# Entry
Amino acid sequence: MSSNDSDIENISLADSSEGSFIEEKSEEEVDEDNVIVIDRHFRINDYVLVKFDMKKDVVHYVGRIEEINHNMAKVRFMRLSKIPNTFLFPEIEDLSSIPLNDIKTKLPNPKASKNPKRGSSKYTFDNSLWVITNLR
# Structure
């Protein structure tokens, strides 16, 4: 195992005959760490899952890294669409500097599709992000 392999933890659920990757569990029992690949090698323009610890709860947001400085990243956050696994950038840019430790993982690059009526793009991820608790 190379040093790069030891830094990336691949976790997946068993494949069923129908091609689904979700075990027979209720949504509350599914562990989001079993659905996504944990990758902490961040670069500019990476799509990431960010964890925010609130007073009573934990929420997760999807965003794209715009800058990295030491142990901080400037992230442009997206909003969850009504379409599963699909996000969009809000009209008013949501840009925040956050500690790299708050980034849970790098996400695969989404597929972008342009909305001709609104002029905005929607970004769809292949991974099932719906199992992530409090995804916004």
Summary: Confidence is low (pLDDT under 50) at residues 1-35.
